[in-house]
Fold this sequence. Notes:
Helix content is about 70%, strand content about 0%. By secondary structure, the chain is an all-alpha fold. α2 packs parallel to α4, α4 (about 65-80) packs across α6 and α5 (about 80-90) runs antiparallel to α6. The longest helix is centred in the first third of the chain and has 28 residues, at about 1-30. The N and C termini lie far apart (about 90 Å).
Amino acid sequence: MTGPLLLAEEVVAVTITRQESDATRALRALEDDRSSVRLRAALAVGTTPAPGSVDKLVERCAIEPEFFVRDMLTWALTRHPVSLTLPLLLREVRSERAQARSQALHTLSKIGDRRAWPAITRTLLCDADDEVARSAWRAAVLLVPEGEGAALAGVLATQLGRGGRETQLSLSRALVDLGEEIEPVLLAATTAPDPGVRAHALATQRLLRDPEAGFEAAIEEAKRVVALGGFGPEGQ
């Protein structure tokens, strides 16, 4: 029986070696100049998760220039145990590199582990980089513990009127996802000195009442109301 047993052990050893070799090649391919190769590499790493891949995936998230590759990197990270990914992602949200912060927050929102909530600080929610702030808003509304929604709404309301259409739409969606808890802060914002804040608050009120309403129409209507010196039905 010694012969067959040794043969079986050799087969297992060869298989493990081949798997390790495949994983090594995939991780190396994450640095290829071609985005299509990097995309396939991220898919391969996520398809066959290995503890040794997590550091490289997180590292690549911080510098990967292509959106679709970054999204695949995030997917690959969600395929690994949270016990391995969470500590590294919590470290990344404090990175000096904006993309590292943004992608780590995005990945945390996909993982959905509420132990990450304490890392979603006011500093991140008000980050000077729009992409980081948007990622923080999405993560926050998904991870916020019961009973803390009103406080979160108060912080998010300080960002009303910020940025361009995409940024404002992201904030409105985040606020609407919090539900009725945003009504007091929106009402207060409809009387803010800044007309951009008032218009954004009015548009968000409309989306809260009618989630199917388009943001573009809502913000244009709100601007007209503000220009005419009104506050809309919620702020009169």
